């Protein structure tokens, strides 16, 4: 009896999971404008890209772009807090129109969502305590590396360095806290992230600044939503005329990186990566 | 005072935001608990039926919620329904549905346990005294069932309050998520705030759950 019940429960779950039809389709530009509101998924705990300030307002590099997109579409902006592991789900289930949550373009992701032109570029970096600084990936063998679930760092180390023991967390906040508490020997995520974090956290330094291939960060829309994709691409190209993303950098990232980082090493204008 | 991470709490509207998050946690918990208790009574009554079909269905239901982590249920309800049936519901609604679905099942099992734990001679004696079935239930069975049920039901309620922290993963900003946002927004200039904010969040959960636990203990002692 018990076994049969469990089997039924399992089958029920599998049906639900795989019954992913085309019912939750993405909204076209016209539909968004007609509704008067665009829903954009951003991080709410990843300063300086997407975070909530002490007044409860969303801020950051991604949010700056989100505001501009809504403004140029002539609609009001509704921001939704997303986390790294559920970003794709938000799009595929039609919960948001666009994801602007520091979404690194990868081949796997491109199979399930459509990426627009990039607006930033990054590689991976590794931050560790200064007194036990990791300066080469080889030093990580047999050590504990902290990563956030669903990030490129997790995929990269799983594929290329299976000897490194990964300690995984659901959110960035938890991952950084784990490093501060010494629950791992180092932490890896986008270099933009670790560079900014190491500047503010004494006793920690980025020993490995660029790792893996140079990746780009782009807005993502639901697979097959050509209308919105084209509109965003045209928008990004036209924003290059006013050097919008440099202005975005000055407004949101400059304070964090100071002189440690050259803006042109991060910012991509008009979707063109040199 | 510079090294006191707690000062982060008093920046801008942080304290108000945290309390607002607590409001969301409380609202979701209370609605789900109230619905769970009501529906749990029905489920529990259904579980004691002798006919094999309702018994099988109840069993299936209970096993499902026991096997599945609440997070999976939340994802299925929030993203799964949208994908499978184009049914778009808010994160809050999905949370209430899932927690009620879970709570009613667990509550039902508690009700079933309480119902079946009353010895048959209680209702037989009541009948022998000339009480009708309704009177027997009202004056003999119900008070005993209630005594056995209340401490366990309160226990379930505190578990539900704590489990609501999962709803942040379907975009609902409750107290723990607000805490994480505050920690993150100040992590460059006040990294030591984390322990303080988590401490405050712990305290907020404590002041909700502790009175409930105390109540359960008092009732248990009084009715033992």
CATH homology group of the largest domain in chain A:
Periplasmic binding protein-like II
Distance between the termini of chain B: 51 Å
Integer tally of domains of chain A: 2
- Would you tell me the structural class of the helices and strands of chain A? alpha/beta
Assembly type of the shown chains? heterodimer
Helix content of chain B: over 70%
Low-confidence stretches of chain A: none
Major sheet summary line of chain B = none
The CATH topology of chain B is what? MetI-like fold
The radius of gyration of chain A is: 20 Å
Compact description:
Chain A has about 270 residues and is of the alpha/beta class.
Please supply descriptive tags for the structure shown above.
heterodimer, A: 274 residues, alpha/beta, D-Maltodextrin-Binding Protein, domain 2, five-stranded mixed beta sheet, 13 strands, B: 224 residues, mainly alpha, MetI-like fold, 8 helices, 78% helix, 0% strand
Describe the secondary structure blueprint for this structure.
The complex is a heterodimer of chains A (274) and B (224).
Chain A: H1 2-18, H2 29-35, E1 37-43, E2 45-46, E3 50-52, E4 58-59, H3 61-73, E5 76-82, H4 87-92, E6 98-99, H5 107-112, E7 113-115, E8 120-129, E9 144-148, H6 152-160, E10 165-169, H7 172-180, E11 186-190, H8 191-200, E12 204-217, E13 220-222, H9 226-239, H10 244-252, H11 254-257
Parallel strand pairs in A: 1-5, 1-6, 9-10, 9-11
Antiparallel strand pairs in A: 2-3, 3-4, 6-13, 7-13, 8-11, 8-12
Chain B: H1 14-47, H2 52-67, H3 70-85, H4 91-117, H5 120-128, H6 133-163, H7 175-185, H8 193-223
Helix pairs in contact in B: 1-4, 1-6, 1-7, 2-4, 3-4, 4-6, 5-6, 6-8, 7-8
């Amino acid at each position: 009896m018990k076994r049969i019940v469990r089997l039924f429960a399992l089958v029920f779950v599998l049906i639900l999971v795989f019954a992913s039809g085309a019912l939750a389709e993405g909204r076209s530009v016209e539909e968004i404008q007609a509704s008067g509101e665009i829903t954009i998924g951003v991080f709410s705990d990843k300063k300086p890209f997407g975070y909530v300030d002490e007044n409860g307002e969303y801020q950051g590099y991604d949010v700056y772009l989100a505001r501009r997109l809504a403004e140029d579409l002539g609609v009001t902006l509704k921001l939704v807090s997303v986390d790294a592991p559920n970003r794709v789900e938000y799009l595929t289930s039609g919960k948001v129109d666009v994801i602007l949550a520091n979404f690194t373009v990868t081949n796997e992701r491109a199979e399930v969502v459509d990426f627009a032109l990039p607006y930033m570029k990054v590689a991976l970096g590794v931050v560790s305590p200064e007194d036990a600084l990791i300066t080469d990936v080889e030093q990580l063998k047999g050590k504990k590396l902290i990563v956030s679930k669903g990030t490129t760092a997790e995929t990269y180390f799983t594929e290329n360095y299976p000897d490194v023991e990964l300690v995984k967390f659901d959110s960035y906040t938890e991952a950084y806290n784990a490093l501060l508490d010494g629950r791992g020997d180092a932490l890896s995520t986008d270099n933009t992230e670790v560079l900014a974090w190491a500047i503010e956290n004494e006793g920690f330094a980025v020993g490995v600044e660029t790792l893996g291939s140079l990746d780009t960060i782009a807005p993502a829309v639901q697979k097959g939503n050509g209308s919105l994709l084209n509109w965003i691409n045209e928008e990004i190209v036209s924003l290059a005329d006013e050097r919008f993303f440099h202005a975005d950098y000055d407004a949101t990232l400059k304070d964090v990186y100071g002189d440690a980082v050259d803006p042109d090493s991060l910012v991509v204008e008009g979707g063109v990566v040199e | 005072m510079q090294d006191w991470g707690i000062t982060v709490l008093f920046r801008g509207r942080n304290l108000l935001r945290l309390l607002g998050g607590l409001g969301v946690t409380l609202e979701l918990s209370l609605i789900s608990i109230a619905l769970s208790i009501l529906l749990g009574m029905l489920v529990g009554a259904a579980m004691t039926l002798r006919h094999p079909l309702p018994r099988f269905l109840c069993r299936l239901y209970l096993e499902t919620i026991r096997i599945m982590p609440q997070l999976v249920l939340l994802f299925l309800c929030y993203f799964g329904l949208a994908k499978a049936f184009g049914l778009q519901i808010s994160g809050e609604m999905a949370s209430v549905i899932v927690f009620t679905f879970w709570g009613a099942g667990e509550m039902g099992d508690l009700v079933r346990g309480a119902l079946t734990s009353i010895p048959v001679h209680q209702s037989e004696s009541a009948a022998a005294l000339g009480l009708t079935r309704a009177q027997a239930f009202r004056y003999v069975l119900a008070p005993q069932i209630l005594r056995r049920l209340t401490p366990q039901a309160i226990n379930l309620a505190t578990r539900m309050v704590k489990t609501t922290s999962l709803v942040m993963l379907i975009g609902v900003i409750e107290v723990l998520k607000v805490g994480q946002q505050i920690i993150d927004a100040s992590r460059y200039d006040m990294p030591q705030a984390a322990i303080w904010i988590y401490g405050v969040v712990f305290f907020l959960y404590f002041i909700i759950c502790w009175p409930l636990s105390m109540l359960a203990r008092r009732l248990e002692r009084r009715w033992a």
